[in-house]
Specification:
Length: about 80
Amino acid sequence: MNILETAENITVSLLEQLRLAWWLKVVTNNPHCTYYFGPFITESAAKVSQFGYIEDIAQEGAEISSVEVKRFQPKVLTLINDE
């Protein structure tokens, strides 16, 4: 691990502790799930990364109903909504 990766990991850890890290929230229908991806240092980093996550979920056959980038700290990374 190089010094830049180490600095980024420390920054992300600090932002997580302060609940200031950015997360990507993807909600799907069929199945009804909520996925959280992150943490990210900046909102723009999360937005740039979202396309890869969305593509992976769509390839699994899920119908994406919403995508949101926000400061948040999820308790779990995947919620399955059996409604």
